[in-house]
Amino acid sequence: GTRLVADLRAGSSSSEPSNLALALGKVLFKAQLPNEGAELYATGGTAATTALVANLSIDRGDAAPMPMGTSGARLVFSAFGDDANTLAFGSDGTAAGTLATSVFARG
Q1: How many CB atoms lie within 10 A of CB 93?
Q2: 68-88: b or e for each residue (b if 16 or more CB lie within 10 Å)?
Q3: What's this model's pTM, rounded to 2 decimal places?
Q4: CA 84 to CA 81: how far, in whole Å?
């Protein structure tokens, strides 16, 4: 059945989880929190294994990650960088293993 795994934003407001992707033995997803904006999170199915993967857009505050697929043991996704360009990222599900691989300039 369906159950709550973790309450990322306690209270009456939602973290608005979306863009779920199964990769690396985890579910990776976008969640919106007041201090980070929309960033990449991962869960292994328990509250203890649910956490922010990486704050991808520290200055801009809203990376809005969108999963694109997998490549080997990495999730490939797009997100906004601090300069508002769209970046392609690869992630192994850790902050240290989440890196921009390409830049798609606006305009």
Answers
A1: 20
A2: eeeeeebbbbbbbbeeeeebe
A3: 0.83
A4: 5
Neighbours of 89 (CB within 10 A): 23
pLDDT tens digits for range 28-74: 888 988 878 888 999 999 999 999 998 887 776 788 888 888 888 88
pLDDT digits (tens, 9 = 90+) for 85-101: 788 888 888 889 888 88
Is residue 91 within 8 A of residue 54, CB to CB? The reply is yes
* Counts for the chain of helices (H) and strands (E), in that order: 0, 8
CA distance 84 to 76: 19
CA 68, CA 71: separation in Å to the nearest integer? 10
Work out the average pLDDT over 14-20: 88
Rounded-to-integer distance, Cα 106 and Cα 58, Å: 19
Per-residue pLDDT, 107:
54
DSSP 65: -
